[in-house]
Amino acid sequence: MKTIATALALVLMAGTTMTIASPAAAQQKPAKPGKPVQPKLSKPIMAVIIEAQKLQAAGDFAGAIARIDAAKDVPRVDADDASYMARLKLGAAQAGRNALKEPAAADTAATAAYRADMAKFELSMEESLTDSLAGGGLSPDETVNFTRVLAGLATNRKDYQKAWKAYEAYFALKPDDVDMLVRAASVNAALNAKPRVVELLTKAIDLREAAGQKGDASWYAFRAQTVIDANLADKMMPVLTSWLKAFPEPKTFNLSIELMKQRSGVLDNNMLLDFSRLMWAAGAMATSSNYLEYADAAIDRGMPNEADAALKEAIAKKLVDPAKVNIAEFVKLAATKGAESRAGVAALEREAKTNPRIALVAADTLANLGQYERAVPIYRGLLGNAGTDQDTLNLRMGAALLKMGDKAGAKLAFDAVKAGPRNAIAQFYGVLVAG
Q: Which domains does the chain have, with CATH numbers?
């Protein structure tokens, strides 16, 4: 089950915006104020430049690019031949792209032609940027700008390998550019390089949080899904709790809990009950399946009052229809079993005094009935008991203490849960305790 949107729903560059100095202006390197140095160009290259500039001046940007491309075999002899030709092509391609007018959406033929022309101009820009960067001679600012735009153009063209190489070159110059880190993450998602996606998003999030801000919610969500998909076990809880701390909202709890359940594989009703109690405590029950899963697990584990409460809330939210036969029967069963549970609780408490296995059931039942003050002493009496699973005990005692408002006691109990999915549940609870 995929709970979070796919990779390219992140922040892919649907349209690359760019600011590049005009080629002619960029070639004028003043040696002294007011005295620009003219580029050193060979005669054959100068002839090509004159022809291409005439075409561009006439608005024939494609023709100017074609003339420059036709001269690819003309030797670059003088110092500025190669860089000036690359810049001239860049200027023509950028001007041609900017001159395009997007047609009405209903005109499909014109739209197709517009997109084809846009792709041609952007490919020419990409080629000229590649040549300019390879040729050197750029200022530091130009190198940064050209590399940034090249990464975006290659991304738009879906040449993700080339795009990633450009991003790597960019990060060598500007390693802490948060927006580019996120864009690079989306490129690596397209390359299926999941560990690198997590690394890039983590750096972007850490930079934002270090500045006293939060990253975009989609960054946390997609990082979490990627960690789950890549089975990066050591990173799962850190990224999920990081997401919850940044966005401690019911929706975030719901998604993060569902992701952990997805990761945990097939769960028995005992474990599903603990996950459902967590979701209920977080106010994160959102779907009919959340409620029905909780009710089913509660009935199966002998906690009908929880099933009754879950079903009533689902009906009140109009997530399930009480008129349906199966729902009506379920509601009736929960009510009947709930009455039986309440009637038998005193006998259960008495038996708990001599039977540790029954003691855990008695404490769970009392907690299920909302009688936390009576449940907690029984839980505490089982601490260290070799016959009682201590992770289960501490998790459920912590949940009861949290319901009582004893956050300090709850934290101690949750911190004592050491292994398996219940450790994950305890860490989720820890976010609630800290909130």
A: 7-27+38-138 (1.25.40), 269-434 (1.25.40)
